[in-house]
Amino acid sequence: MGRWICCLCSRAADSLMLLLVLAASCNPSLEATASPSAPHVKPSYSFGRTFLGLDKCNACIGTSICKKFFKEEIRFDNWLSSHLKLPPSYLLSYSGNYTDDAKSWRLVDITRLTTKYRHDQADKRICTVLLKTRTCSLERALRRTTRVQKWLQAKRLTPDLVQGLSSPMLRCPSQRLLDRIVRRYAEVPDAGSIYMDHLTDRDKLRLLYTLSVNSHPILLQIFPDVEGWPFPRYLGACGRLVVSASTRPLRDFFGAAPEVAADLALQLLAVLRSMGTNDLNYFFYFTHVDAGTFGVFSNGHLFIRDASMLGIIDKEEGSQLTDDQQEYKDIFSCLTVDCQSAVVSCNSIREKQSLVMVCQELLPKLLKGKFLQPIQEKIDSFLQHCADDFTDDQGIDDAVAKLAELLKPLRSCDSRFAYRYPDCKYSDKY
What we know:
Blueprint: H1 2-26, H2 28-34, H3 49-52, H4 66-70, E1 74-76, E2 93-98, E3 106-112, H5 116-131, H6 138-143, H7 146-153, H8 175-183, H9 201-213, H10 216-222, E4 234-238, E5 241-245, E6 248-249, H11 258-276, E7 282-286, E8 294-296, E9 302-304, E10 310-314, H12 323-326, H13 353-361, H14 363-367, H15 375-386, H16 393-407, H17 423-426
Helix pairs in contact: 1-2, 15-16
InterPro entries: DIPK2A/B, FAM69_kinase_dom
Protein name: Divergent protein kinase domain 2B
Domain FAM69 protein-kinase: 208-388
């Protein structure tokens, strides 16, 4: 009797289980309720080596921040949505978010050395000129050049190793400046020596490539913001992308309120003054400025956003290149510029060159029509005098000094200017 009851119970249980399975197959909601919840799968951000430019290494900037990308600690703005797609690869720069603890995020700029089109054209030029093919291993091709062979054998970065490179920063190089580049090169873990013993062949090729295409990331490394230099902080590189602290371009402030415009104009003049006179005796000058050259942090502080057109002359040592060395050309001279472009002599750089450019291109757009008469008329007059190429250096200095005195009382002291607030309440400096 007991065995019959057990058998009956077993059959009843089997029938009940069959009914539940059939019901679940007909009713998806019941299946979802009955089954245990699936573990949450963290979305995967699909990175292409091509997008980052890692497939081009060691003809790239470096890899110091790649782990941050792959660990999702650097995200592009649109990655905060559920559809995780990389932005278009043809853009020159991207806005992103950066974290060290996965809790607090800060804005960063993710930038290419040059446009992807120019990168691609330069890559084709390397293969065509050096190996007579349309595609090739960039590293293998570049290693065959005389310049790279000299770099690989060199113990110290000397002026002859950078002769003919198109970067304005290296147009008039001194040994002191080149030592600073090697000593502070941030893409290697143990920088600090002026000798290149701590640089592998791979490191040397990456440094040479960066200096040849765009010296902007090198300037950020050797003149860091923590020492008071007006550049955004360099955070690292991955392939052909550079990550730095985020700033809004000056063009975003051309329609700003008068007190904001006055404040930014004064900061702009102060930055140019510090570029001409500083404790290290380097003279910085621009070869070109536009609305994206300068940027503004969230606290209202103005910085140099794009240093690619910034030249340097060492006032202590001067340039150590001869005219013949300045005119030297090879494949590294022509990666992003026309090889036929004229070389500007170091002796022809005008001391007030940057001021004239800013008075011509930026200050009129920032200050035009912002103030009541007769103040606006005086501002326009000073700007016109400053922007005149035929005005001598003393005349430009006088015009800029009068413009600054006119703008100072037009600023306001409030939380919009966090970089000097509340100090501006108590100090005449602000």
